[in-house]
């Protein structure tokens, strides 16, 4: 449903095979290109239906209720607040704005389910809670109005814990976000971060992969995020997860991930809570040297980069030890992620907490109600 059905139209007699224009039902347009493989033969461009673009444009100019009315001068000022150098030319307001929105939707995106960054910024400025009109103090009525055209295109807007507007793709739950993981967090985000940190200290390696890392990398725009190797150790070949990332140039990079639950150090042997880096070294060599099979391209490819991820800390001694063992080419392929990186990325991208953690919290609140009478 979220991907849509392809409906092709033949080109002229002299056109190349598969080079005709194709449209997706959720509004993405695929530009014609001579194709080599199913994945690099087209470039996806977002395209909303005209009536939905008009509805959003009318909200920007302030025609519907619960939106600030903007004349020609203030329309220009609005786009300047969004960091865009557009000046209203005196033509019909909504039509002029709709044409700009159409151009912004055609810009490149890192993920086919993300809204373009500048289009997303316009929605955030439009729905800033300080711009509330009348009795719509929390902008609930304005949000409901915005969701009418967005849901017709397969998206849904909502306010996060940071009180900023976010937009998720309904079919994949991927959130269009350009959040900075190093920004200061709000009190609600700090609370979510502490809960996730507690979960990481107590979860198993399988729970870390399935409930934290897989949703995180999918949200960050990686594709084919697969953890099949962890189900069958004989087929793991040094990696717990493999995935791919498509660059704006349509080139593909493949990533392997080796996950450890606790702390990674350079001690002489592994302990209950720590993992020795020499074990990671052997698994890393196996990961970089073994090909993965991508069923969508029907090709085998070597891993371009390897993530070494720990649910705890990765000590500086462990990083230096591994760097000394690998040659220069291999060192450039290694990337580290430890608990701090996971927490910051998870919270800043506004991903829901793991299901087992939310279920535990709700059950505790039900079982221990402070208002209940003491039963003895």
How would you sum up this structure in a few lines?
The protein is α+β, with helices and mostly antiparallel strands and 376 residues long.
Name its key features.
single chain; 376 residues; alpha+beta; five-stranded mixed beta sheet; 12 helices; 37% helix; elongated; disordered N terminus
* % residues in beta strands: 15-25%
Q: Compute the gyration radius: what is it?
A: 24 Å
Described by strand count, sense and barrel closure, the largest sheet is:
5 strands, mixed
**Secondary structure tally: strands:** 16
Descriptive account of the structure:
With 376 residues, the chain is an alpha+beta fold. It is built from twelve helices and 16 strands. A five-stranded mixed β-sheet has the order 8-9-10-15-16, sandwiched between helices. The longest helix is centred in the middle third of the chain and has 16 residues, at 187-202. The chain is elongated and about 70 Å long.
What order do the helices and strands come in, and which of them pair?
Blueprint: E1 7-8, E2 22-23, E3 28-31, E4 43-46, H1 50-61, H2 72-81, H3 93-105, H4 117-126, H5 140-152, E5 155-159, E6 165-169, E7 175-176, H6 187-202, H7 205-219, E8 223-226, E9 241-246, E10 252-260, E11 263-265, E12 274-276, H8 277-289, E13 292-294, E14 299-301, E15 305-310, H9 316-325, H10 328-331, E16 334-337, H11 339-348, H12 355-367
């Amino acid at each position: 449903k979220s991907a849509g059905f392809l409906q092709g139209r033949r080109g002229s007699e002299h056109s190349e095979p598969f080079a005709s224009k194709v449209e997706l039902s959720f509004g993405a347009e695929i530009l014609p290109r001579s194709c080599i493989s199913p994945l690099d033969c087209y470039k996806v461009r977002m395209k909303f239906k005209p009536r939905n673009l008009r509805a959003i444009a009318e909200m920007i100019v302030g025609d519907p209720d619960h939106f600030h009315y903007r004349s020609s001068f203030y329309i220009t000022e609005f786009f300047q607040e969004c960091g865009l150098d557009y000046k209203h030319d005196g033509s019909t307001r909504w039509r002029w704005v709709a044409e700009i929105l159409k151009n912004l939707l055609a810009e490149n995106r890192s993920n086919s389910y993300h809204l373009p960054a500048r289009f997303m910024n316009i929605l955030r400025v439009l729905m800033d809670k300080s711009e509330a009109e009348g009795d719509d103090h929390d902008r609930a009525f304005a949000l409901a109005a915005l969701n009418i055209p967005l849901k017709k295109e397969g998206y849904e807007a909502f306010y996060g814990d940071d009180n900023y507007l976010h937009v998720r793709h309904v079919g994949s739950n991927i959130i269009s976000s350009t959040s900075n993981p190093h920004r200061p967090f709000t009190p609600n985000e700090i609370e979510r971060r502490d809960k996730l940190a507690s979960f990481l200290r107590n979860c198993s390696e399988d729970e870390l992969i399935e409930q934290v890392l897989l949703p995180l990398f999918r949200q960050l725009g990686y594709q084919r995020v697969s953890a099949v190797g962890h189900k069958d150790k004989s087929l793991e070949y040094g990696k717990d997860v493999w995935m791919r990332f498509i660059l704006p140039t349509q080139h593909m990079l493949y990533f392997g991930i080796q996950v450890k639950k606790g702390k990674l150090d350079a001690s002489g042997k592994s302990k209950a809570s720590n993992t020795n880096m020499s074990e990671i070294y052997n698994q890393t060599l196996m990961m970089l040297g073994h090909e993965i099979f991508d069923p969508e391209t029907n090709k085998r490819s070597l891993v371009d980069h390897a993530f070494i991820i720990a649910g705890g800390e990765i000590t500086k001694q462990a990083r230096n030890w591994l760097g000394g063992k690998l040659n220069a080419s291999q060192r450039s392929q290694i990337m580290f992620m430890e608990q701090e990186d996971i927490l910051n990325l998870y919270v800043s991208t506004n991903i829901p907490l793991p299901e087992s953690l939310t279920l535990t919290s709700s059950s505790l609140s039900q079982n221990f109600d402070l208002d209940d009478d003491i039963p003895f």
